[in-house]
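Q: Convert this sequence to structure tokens.
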Amino acid sequence: MRSSRILYLILLVLSLVFVYFYGGAVPYMILYVVLILPVVSFIYALVIFFRFKYFQEIDKKFIMKGDRVKYIFTITNEDYFFYPYLRVTFFGSKTIFNEQFKKINLSLLPQKEKTFTFELYCRYSGNYEIGVERIEIEDFLGLFKLTYKIPFPLSITVYPRIITLERFKLKTDFTSESYSSSISRNEDMGVLKDVRKYVYGDTLKKVHWKLSAKLNEIMIKQFENTTESSVLIIPDFRKNDYTIEQNTVIEDKILESTIAVVNYCLNKWIPVNIICYSKEALEIKAGNPTDFSDVYNNLAQIRFAHTLKISDIADVYVKSTTSKSNLVLCTADIDYSLYNVIYYASFSGFNVIVIYISPEELTGIKNNVAEAIISDIPRIGVKVYKMDISDDIKTVLEVE
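A:
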């Protein structure tokens, strides 16, 4: 475009010189043509700007991590004149699809259309804007460029995998202090309240042997003087200061780990309370397997957008919650402020579990502070699952 403008200015100067030195009808006609051509060319481009049509679609509505999706883009010239220069830029060029979306330069003959198909490999879960970002239209002289920005971008949600855990280290009951002080050393049973299915970690003392034999399945007695097991889950949905690719991989790991724990709990009929932030605070409660679908959909839609640290979120809820429960923290960022919260929660009666997604494989930088903390906190009864990016979630979380 710059060279076209320089060439036009040279032509304009030559026309003026020609008129100045020679005058007459022909030099003036040439000058008028040179002056009018940019106006005509701009109007031509403006007509194209308002007249071109485009269409875009994807071939799937529900997209799971690992799926391949076809994105189809069609641009049409319904007029009887030529579209000389169009340039199409896609949103995906700034996301994990950067190698799958390429800019397109094209021209369109009258009454013709062109269709482009891209196969997108959805390697990671998350919310992405894809498709056309803008269409640039140049006039036939190459002097002007009009940019049409797409008002409603096409967005997709790539849903995370659902990982089924066979076991996960949870504390299944929290005995009240008043009851603990009143019972004898050999007595740990109260009035039978209910019977439920066995959950990994239950003591054999509470097995209902007669009912288990009858149902051919291990059943556990629940007593009135024990508090029902529950899980408070706080995933870290903060946007970290890494590259787009690195953040996408880390966020995918955090989301799938969180969903794996939620799925395990609900399948065991263990109530969960999920506290998370995206653009605003969100609290999700669920208590049985039928609730999982709604929880899964809500978590899959969340964007990692806020800047609030997980230590600040956990600190508020730990100090404001009177009933103690399992506390699961899932994060890729462990520092001393989070260590203080973990320490306080553990000594306040919470059964704290930390799932640490280490970014070291992506960044090549070892976080010595995080390593020191996860090595230290098991001494205060905190269970730590350290997970590298290449690790299998199921394998790591099922370790006793």
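The chain has four domains: 2-49, 52-159, 177-223, 227-397.
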